[in-house]
Design brief:
By secondary structure, the protein is α/β, with parallel strands linked by helices. The protein is about 50% helix and about 15% strand. The radius of gyration is 17 Å and the shape is globular. It starts with 8 loop residues before the first strand and ends with a helix.
Length: about 250
């Protein structure tokens, strides 16, 4: 077992470590259960992050400061092949979250942050994800909080998380927002591993469907997601812009 990230690559000025999923779980487990744990941030890189970062220098800085950056999307694997001549494994956020919970079960304290709040008697996304994760993996639920709060409330939410003392923070508040929160509040929260994991909470809560296995094996998961979910249609232009960006980089 290793708790050291592999060689760090660079893709469009962004870091890319891209360990395999088993190696990712080994690294994060080492950080979580270290004798003197320190706070770490994890970014799961996808093509949208690349496109967003080109207009957002702060997002670039935050990703460069991350302790581990994995290849979440198949587009990143393709880009690394085209521009770096490297075959890299994927380690998507949902697989990392599930893998850690399955591996450590009741020894793991998890805080769920993000998604819509509950209405009336209806549970919010984070609360439902926490309940399902407890049922499925037997983890300890350190706490949960919706993701619909303003940046002015970040310090208040960070203090709540620190008081809960989780080993693992799953932050699902959308690309950019979640990574900036984790990095800005890492010292305040003192969580051994904080992962920006996008729609993982929705998958755990059962409010979003995980892409079929065949789409993941074929590398067309992102196409299935966009086609099956109207809320994702606005993301298609970014993916369309990513392909010519990579091809232009290859020509240079």
């Amino acid at each position: 077992m290793t708790d050291q990230p592999p060689e760090r690559l660079t893709l469009f000025d962004l870091p890319l470590d891209a360990p395999s999923l088993p190696d990712t779980l080994d690294i994060l487990s080492g950080w979580i259960f270290a004798a003197e744990p320190a706070p770490h941030t994890v970014v799961t890189l996808n093509p949208e992050f690349v496109m967003d970062s080109r207009q957002d220098p702060e997002f670039v800085r935050v990703m460069q400061a991350a302790d581990l950056v994995t290849a979440d999307g198949v587009g990143i694997v393709w880009a690394a092949r085209q521009l770096l001549g490297r075959e890299l494994p994927r380690a998507p956020g949902v697989d990392i979250a599930r893998g850690l919970m399955q591996r450590h079960g009741p020894d793991l304290r998890v805080f769920f942050l993000g998604g819509k709040p509950g209405e009336g008697a209806e549970m919010g996304v984070a609360e439902r994800a926490a309940q399902n994760a407890f049922h499925d993996y037997g983890i300890q639920v350190a706490g949960h909080h919706h993701g619909y709060f303003k940046p002015a409330q970040d310090a208040e939410v960070a203090a709540l998380i620190r008081e809960a003392q989780p080993h693992l923070l799953l932050t699902g508040m959308g690309g950019g927002r979640q990574e900036k929160f984790n990095e800005a509040q890492r010292r305040a929260m003192q969580v051994p591993v904080a992962i920006g994991c996008g729609g993982t909470l929705d998958v755990l809560a059962g409010t979003a469907e995980l892409a079929p296995e065949w789409t993941r094996r074929a590398g067309v998961e992102f196409v299935w997601r966009i086609a099956s979910d109207r809320s994702r249609w606005g993301r298609a232009p970014k993916l369309a812009q990513f392909v010519p960006l990579v091809l232009a980089g290859k020509r240079r």
